[in-house]
Amino acid sequence: MRDRDDLQRRVLATIQNYNLIQKGDKIVIGVSGGPDSMCLLNCLFCLQKILGVELVVAHINHMLREEAEEETKYVQEFCDKIDIPCFVKYADIAKLSQEQKLGTEEMGRKMRYEFFEEVAKQAEANKIATAHNSNDNAETVLMNLLRGSGISGLKGIEIKVDRNWKQEDGTAIKEKSIEYIRPILECDRAEIEAYCAEKGLNPKIDRTNLENDYTRNKIRNQLIPYLQKDFNPNVIQSLNRLSELAGEEEEYFKEIILQTYETLKIGENEKETILDLKKFNHLPKVIKARVLLYTINKVIGTTQGIGKVHIEDCIKLCANNIGNKYLTPNKNVKIFVKQGNIFVKKM
């Protein structure tokens, strides 16, 4: 590679350091047509022979802006030129967000990930690559911090993460797993844009990213420039270091919680888990909270909508050992104490 391909060398190093890609993988790349996703697509295309992988592209048209059709055409033509299959979906995000009572940003994200997984199933791919970069990660850390997040939120965007889906296989429904990877997460926005310019990619610019209607855009366009100017010009790097440290601590805690859960577990099935109340009450509060969250996630598959106050109420319930009383941290799970045990039950 030539000197100007330094970003590609670094992306390859990231892939190798984190074991993101193995020979024989089939990867769906989420491509909007913007600088980040075009950088990712071009990098993986240039590294394709070295990596020994097969690539397909997934592009979703949100039908929110006049330029959207031009962006779709651009992505399709680029994929035709480099001979990579391109799957396209049109989704009326404005209409869907009204019907499902979600914000357009949240609805757009939901539809993107559903489509990426739909393409992965159709193309029989085992990985999905998204174009998150170090600026995105810094913004996520700040956004979570402002929302009062704990350590889990401070780890920001994970460089790889498994997601499960249910897939029909004849008459049976099997649960499968797909891995999301972020190969350009260690690259910043400025060098990504420079790479696009050097390679003559001419990516499309989403002008709504310059508007400050959403929290993330305000953090990107107002808060981070203010912090860079008046406090720390290297704030992006500092936030990414914080993210890395938080991620390492989270991994350590995961091991501790799993071990603790196994010592507390008396019984479990698809509908409930039973824990030893006496052993639980002797744990430090931080471990109690994490064990409850871990158990809830095992029982119902999510902890969405469950906040600090819900977990603290559950800890108090266990400490007081009150029978005939139960708590519902969300509508899908019920927690109660009975005969010296804690029951976490799916509703």
Key phrases:
52% helix, 14 helices, 6-stranded mixed β-sheet, alpha/beta, 5-stranded antiparallel β-sheet, 11 strands, 347 residues, elongated
What fraction of the residues are assigned to beta strands by DSSP?
Answer: 15-25%
Largest sheet, spatial ordering of strands = 3-2-1-4-6-5
Q: How would you classify the helix and strand content by structural class?
A: alpha/beta
State the helix count. 14
Mind summarizing the main beta sheet? 6 strands, mixed
Which term fits the overall shape? elongated
Polypeptide structure, described:
Helix content is 52%, strand content 19%. It has 347 residues and is an alpha/beta fold. A six-stranded mixed β-sheet has the order 3-2-1-4-6-5, sandwiched between helices. It has a five-stranded antiparallel β-sheet with strand order 7-8-11-10-9. Helix 2 packs across helix 9 and helix 5 packs across helix 6. The model has no long low-confidence stretch (mean pLDDT 90).
Secondary-structure map:
Elements: H1 6-17, E1 26-30, H2 35-46, H3 48-51, E2 54-61, H4 68-82, E3 86-90, H5 93-100, H6 104-123, E4 127-129, H7 134-146, H8 151-154, E5 160-169, E6 172-181, H9 189-199, H10 215-230, H11 235-264, E7 265-268, E8 272-276, H12 277-281, H13 285-300, H14 308-320, E9 326-330, E10 333-338, E11 341-346
Parallel strand pairs: 1-2, 1-4, 2-3, 4-6
Antiparallel strand pairs: 5-6, 7-8, 8-11, 9-10, 10-11
Helix pairs in contact: 2-9, 5-6, 7-10, 7-11, 11-13, 13-14
